[in-house]
Amino acid sequence: MKGCTLAEFINDLRTMGGPEKEFTFRDKRYFLETVYHEETGLDEMYIFEVSDTDPVIARFFGKDFDECTDQFEEAKIFDGQTIYDVEDEIEVLFG
Fold it and tell me: How many CB atoms lie within 10 A of CB 1?
């Protein structure tokens, strides 16, 4: 991973729900954001591809940032692989 270490990236998600992160993977830009839904008491972490349509590629819900991050770590959203499988191909641009 370029721009920070994978451990720093994951630790930021666990402790602060971000902060918002922008990164590239295989020539595509992505944005990760976390929001709190007061009506349900759940945090939501979502990732979308920065493009003309900004498609959401993943959503994770949990009672805290740890639960969302656990789901993110296990998700095979990077061309069928986890962030741990492709960390060498990710560059963090912001966050």
Answer: 17
Answering whether pTM is above 0.85, one says: yes
Task: Fill in the amino acid letter for 74.
Answer: E
Per DSSP, 3 falls in state S
Nearest by Cα to 1 from 93, 95, 89 = 89
Any idea of the CA torsion for 51, 55, 61, 67, to the nearest 10 degrees?
-50
SS3 content of the chain, % helix, strand, coil (to 5): 30, 40, 30
User: What is the residue whose two structure tokens read 């991050």?
Assistant: 69
Name the helix (H) or strand (E) containing 69: helix 65-74
How many other CB atoms sit within 10 Å of the CB of residue 8? 12
Please give the pLDDT value at position 16: 83
Mean pLDDT of the chain: 95
